[in-house]
Amino acid sequence: MFRWIRAAALAAAVAAFVPAAFASFACAASLGDDGLHKEDWFSVTFRDVAEDIEAARAEGKRLVLVFEQRGCIYCAKMHEQLLSDPEVADFIKAHFKVVQYNMFGDEEVTDLDGEVLTEKTAARKWGYVFTPTLVFMPDDVPESVSAGKAAVATMPGAFGKWTFLNMFRWVYEKGYEGDEHFQKYHARIIQELRESGRLQGE
């Protein structure tokens, strides 16, 4: 009798766990034909930077471009450890429109100055050599300037959760227009997290 009860309890636990596990996998980034990780909330556009800035603004958001490449272990880390974190993903989804670029891709890109490029020639023109590189665009479309020069901030590489998330928060709050440099802003937020008990040791 007790064996039957234990078996029934185990079966119930497994039944409860399996859907949750599959739901977790369902939310994970998928790998595209180009070898890049894909979040289902990334925006698929024609990569006209001016149009994308306007589209983001119409949604009450900011535009961020993310350069990645096939086989990039740091890109994988960004997706698996950072963008899979609900606190990080929810903030970005609420405030930013994210458009993915392939560092060595051939898809057409229209720069803010009107020049038609490919993803790989855009990366060269704008001076990006690391993946991932996140490029934060202004909330208004500037005139006669390339996207590389118009960017209000760039973040090359995959960092820890709070550096990553705080950069998005700093840009959203337009910290680049004020006197508090990002590093000062980040240090202040880390101290506040420590004092609140949410962070230990970072």
From TrEMBL:
SUPFAM superfamilies tied to this protein: Thioredoxin-like
Chain ranges of the Thioredoxin-like fold domain: 56-140
Signal peptide bounds: 1-28
This protein's UniProt keywords: Signal
Name listed for the protein in its UniProt record: Thioredoxin-related protein
Species the sequence originates in: Breoghania corrubedonensis
